[in-house]
Amino acid sequence: MAQILGIIDIVWRGVAYDVIPKSGKLQLSGMKNNPVVAGRNVHRSQEFTQGKVTISTVLKRGQRHSELYDENEGELQVRCDTGHVYICPDAFLESGPPEISDDGGKLELVWTISKYEEIMP
């Protein structure tokens, strides 16, 4: 029986974040085909689309909000329990300063990624 993805861990600028289970999402960047209708035919044009990494984490007692949010670019590592690792050297937080809920201090962080390196187990 093969193992499938169950857990995503995040390391942002060298700091590991606690990820709330089942909140992690990874959409890789790459080429996308767009349909273009001309007359009675459909053609395609291509464009590069950015990737996106989304997680939910928590704000812990004694932790500063500014420790979680930084508007500058940096290295983001997405580590999967399957052994796959995606290293994104120029990621940035797109979500803006996070909104914090009273449901355990949960907050969502969203990074945009451009290029990435995939490391296989």
Detailed description of the structure:
By secondary structure, this protein is mainly beta. The chain has a single domain, classed as Elongation Factor Tu (Ef-tu), domain 3 (Beta Barrel). Helix content is 3%, strand content 53%. The protein has one helix and ten strands, in the order ββββββαββββ. It has one helix at 65-68; strands at 8-12, 15-17, 25-27, 30-38, 41-49, 51-58, 74-80, 85-93, 106-113, 117-119. The strands form two sheets. Strands 1, 2, 3, 6, 7, 8, 9 and 10 form an eight-stranded antiparallel beta sheet that branches. A two-stranded antiparallel sheet has the order 4-5. The longest helix has 4 residues, at 65-68. It is globular, with a radius of gyration of 17 Å. InterPro entries: Phage_Mu_GpM_tail_tub.
List the helices and strands and how they pair.
Elements: E1 8-12, E2 15-17, E3 25-27, E4 30-38, E5 41-49, E6 51-58, H1 65-68, E7 74-80, E8 85-93, E9 106-113, E10 117-119
User: What CATH architecture label applies?
Assistant: Beta Barrel
Count of β-strands: 10
The largest sheet is: 8 strands, antiparallel
Beta fraction: over 45%
Task: Give the helix/strand class.
Answer: mainly beta
Pfam family, one: Tail_tube
InterPro entries: Phage_Mu_GpM_tail_tub
How do you describe this structure in short?
The chain is mostly beta strands and 121 residues long.
List keywords for this structure.
121 residues; mainly beta; Elongation Factor Tu (Ef-tu), domain 3; eight-stranded antiparallel β-sheet; two-stranded antiparallel sheet; 53% strand; globular
